[in-house]
Amino acid sequence: MSRLECQIFYNSHEQDAPVDGAVDVAADPGAAHRLLQLGVSPRHDLPAVLLVEPGGKLRILGLRLDPGEVAKLCLAEGLPAESLLVYSSAWCPDCRRAKRVLDEAEASFQEVDIDRDATAEATVLARSGGRRVVPTLLFDDRIWAFNPDPPLLRRLLNGRAAARA
User: Fold this and answer.
1) What pLDDT does residue 2 have?
2) Are residues 69 and 94 in the same domain?
3) Which residue, among 136, 141, 146, has the nearest Cα to 113 in the 3D structure?
């Protein structure tokens, strides 16, 4: 698993900074614009965490997080989740690999094929910044994972195991 950079965003008009070094979108219009490109509302979806690869590719997007959740997600640790939705394609080997990891973890999930559902495809495009990324996983309508490699996905699932125990 490559090293992921943690970027934290908040809106000082709506909440206190969740941690030192977080970016205030009220003071940084460029940061607010970046979030808007991901379909993130600077008013309703913050604090938010983006985990990105060194080249800037988005891997994880977390929304509406409390300070403890921000800290856990910055470590690429999972958060307890009740539901999991997998956006996939039948032709995609990464999708098959992700579903195998989910099956091994005994994680229940629903699946939507973005090749057959234009609304699902539009959702993935909107949240990923215009990239058609499969698999895309959505935990509880708050945590988005874009083609996570198996070790990262296993770490994210640790939170699900805690919720089911």
Assistant:
1) 62
2) no
3) 136
Examine residue 140 and state whether it is found in any structural domain, yes or no: yes
Q: What are phi and psi of 90, to 5 degrees?
A: -65, -30
Q: Which amino acid is at 38?
A: L
Tokens 């490559």 label which residue?
Answer: 2
Q: Which amino acid is at 73?
A: L
17-66 residue pLDDT tens: 989 999 999 999 999 999 999 999 999 999 999 999 999 999 999 999 99
Do residue 127 and residue 55 come from a single domain?
no
Query: Whole-prediction pTM value?
Result: 0.92
Token readout for 38 is: 């991901």
Q: State yes or no: cis peptide before 18, omega within 30 of 0.
A: no
For residue 1, what pLDDT band results from cuts at 50, 70 and 90?
Answer: very low
Residue 159 belongs to domain with CATH number: 3.40.30.10
State the residue for tokens 């808007």. 36
Domain of residue 63: give its range: 5-74
Is 66 in the same domain as 110?
Answer: no
Please give the helix or strand (H or E) that residue 76 lies within, else none: none
In sequence order, the β-bridge partners of residue 110 are 85
